[in-house]
Amino acid sequence: MDVVVLPTAVDVAAYAAGVVADRIAAQPALVLGVATGSSPVGIYRELARRRREEGLDLSRLECFALDEYVGLPGHDPHSYAAYLRREVADPFGLSAERVHVPDGVRADLEGAAQDYEQSIAVAGGIDLQILGIGTNGHIGFNEPLSALSSRTRVLALSAQTRADNARFFDAPDDVPTHCLTQGLGTILEARQLLLVAQGERKAQAVAAAVEGPVAARCPASVLQFHRRTTIVVDEAAASRLTLAGHERPDAGA
Predict the structure, then answer these.
(1) What distance lies between CA 44 and its chain's CA centroid?
(2) In sequence order, which residues have a C-beta less than 8 Å from that of residue 179 and are 6 or more positions away?
(3) How deeply is 246 buried, as exposed, middle or buried, from its count of CB atoms within 10 A (0-12, 13-18, 19+)?
(4) How many other β-carbons are positioned within 10 Å of the β-carbon of residue 52?
(5) What is the DSSP string of the chain?
(6) Maximum alpha-carbon separation in the chain
(7) CB 67 within 8 A of CB 103
């Protein structure tokens, strides 16, 4: 597990976008796993800037979302399908067919979960998975006590996660109670993982994921088992790390 600590959230986005851009340059038809929420937005906007201003070719990407709310159709602006149209598909110049999202409105949700796993397999698996981390250590929507080998499935959202996500909705009661999410076992099958975190609110979760024991209490700690994981955080998110040796490159590096 490589941990890169940078001064600011802007530096985190630029560095992480560079990691993604390097992979795309080497493999233009990259299968990219895309997280949602606030953590990865800077990555997507920097990649879109590189497309506009530097000619970075994103047209051959195939993207897979980590998760989706149950009960929100794709046209709902709060859905992750809508988020990915705004932040990924349109800015990257990708057709809707190249951005896959779990079907959270299907009557047979278990079937939707199984079909999503199959669609990842048909694409050849995820080459590079972008991740954020919740304040309770969740990745995707794998809440604490999720099985470390879990697959894509329906989950109830914890009270903490719903409270954290309430800022994206008109009222706290509007936050869905359930989701479809890739499992921890599914995430670990990606060939490369890139997790970003910014701010003091994420510091405890980052420390537990990086330096704590591998335990279901902190789902992100399972990343310690992965053969190729990079964690990029700002100084605030790194503030509770205690071990020396984490890389601190110059912000422009």
Answers:
(1) 11
(2) 67, 68, 69, 70, 104, 141, 154, 155, 157
(3) middle
(4) 11
(5) -EEEEESSHHHHHHHHHHHHHHHHHH-TT-EEEE--SSTTHHHHHHHHHHHHHH----TT-EEEESEEETT--TTSTTSHHHHHIIIIIHHHT--GGGEE---TT-S-HHHHHHHHHHHHHHTT--SEEEE---TTS-BTTB-TT--TT--SEEEEPPHHHHHHHGGGSSSGGGS-SEEEE--HHHHHTSSEEEEEE-SGGGHHHHHHHHHS--BTTBGGGGGGG-SSEEEEEETTTTTT---S--B---TT-
(6) 50
(7) no
Phi, psi angle pair for 205, to nearest 5°: -65, -40
Q: What is the mean pLDDT of the chain?
A: 95
Predicted confidence band of residue 235 (pLDDT cuts 50, 70, 90): very high
Tens digit of pLDDT for each residue in 54-65? 999 999 999 999
Amino acid at 108: D
Q: Give the Cα separation of 190 and 203 in Å (integer).
A: 25
Q: What is the pLDDT of residues 70-91, one digit of tens each?
A: 999 999 999 999 999 999 999 9
| Residue in this structure with the two tokens 């953590």, named with its chain if needed | 39
Beta bridge partners, 34, equal: 65
Bridge partners (DSSP) listed for residue 77: none
Query: Does the pLDDT value for residue 252 go beyond 60?
Result: no
| Span 120-156, pLDDT tens digits | 999 999 999 999 999 999 999 999 999 999 999 999 9
What span, in angstroms and rounded, lies between the C-alpha atoms of 180 and 184?
Answer: 13
- Report how far residue 72's alpha carbon sits from residue 103's, in angstroms, rounded to the nearest whole number: 9
